[in-house]
Amino acid sequence: MKIAVGSKNQAKLKAVETVVQMAGRKAEIIPVDAPSNVSGMPFSDEETMQGAINRAEYCVQHEDVHFGIGLEGGVTETSSGLFLINWGALAEKGKETIVAGGARIKLPEEIAVRLRAGEELGPVMDDYCQQENIRHNEGAIGVFTDGLVNRADMFTHIMKLLIGQHRYWTK
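Below the sequence we write its predicted structure tokens.
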């Protein structure tokens, strides 16, 4: 089985590998630089979900694979503040794309202000933590949960939801 992941981000690739192994499957995981066709910092559930769908569908349209996976992080404004969100999509040729959303966590106001001003979360987090490539490692969720949940964990949860739905719908 071949699965294309619409990203070269290590946290996302690890999440896909982990869940494929948990599901007892053997698969070749192919990282693809798939466009999200949404803003660099998706700013709503709808935009973040659409980014995941676009990445997944790009994979099955441009690669010879069984499935395409799109995983997208973003933020959404609520009456309680700005929340980190994430969405995933599983696309298969000729079938409806499956979507799932995951964990949410409120971002500190000093981060939220910068995002509202148009900056992207990855560079803001690198600056905030005085490190590089936070997005490829623990991610903002890892920083703000003191390492109890990292970015790969967050996307692993999404992958479980996607694979579980796929199993249900293809019975």
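DSSP finds six helices and six strands in the chain.
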